[in-house]
Write a structure and sequence with these properties.
alpha+beta; 8 strands; 28% strand
Amino acid sequence: MNDLFTIDCGEILLREFRVEDVDAIYELTSQPEVYKFLPDWHSTREQRLTWVTNYEIPSNKEFLSALPNISGQNCLKLGIVLKETGEFIGFCNTGIKEELCEPNREIAYAISKHYRNRGYTTKAVKGLIQYLFNHTDVEHLNTVVVPHNLSSKKVIQKCGFRFNGNIEIEERTHSHYMLNKDDWKGENNH
């Protein structure tokens, strides 16, 4: 992993994107189980290579260089990687969700259909939450999910997010969830 930023989450690691991840990200975001819930991630391989190289990796570097004061930073995009094999199996990101009122820092994630229902996504989201609340100036986190994405709702609830009502984003209803740092610390005794 060399000099790449990582968060140890037990069986998995969260680590910043690298160019070598392009094929795995492309394969993941080409799965209907992913792009039906995250249509903005659907792309060609060439688009994905451009995005990872020219936007996502530089954005990660900017985000990490601003620590702990990330309020002006947009995205940190981290791969979910199996610790034992190094296989890229998903992603867990944080960024600004423009459609939400401030504070509008969001967590978003996806996992390959081949690794669902093993607890990896919940571990990844909990790892990112812990990192953000313990090592940055973040006080509130959001996530949005389409109401029929029951798997995602389970992850969100296991991670302590509370339902905050429905909102319309791009003419689709989304369930909006929030997590407050003080509530999280109280529940997790940190």
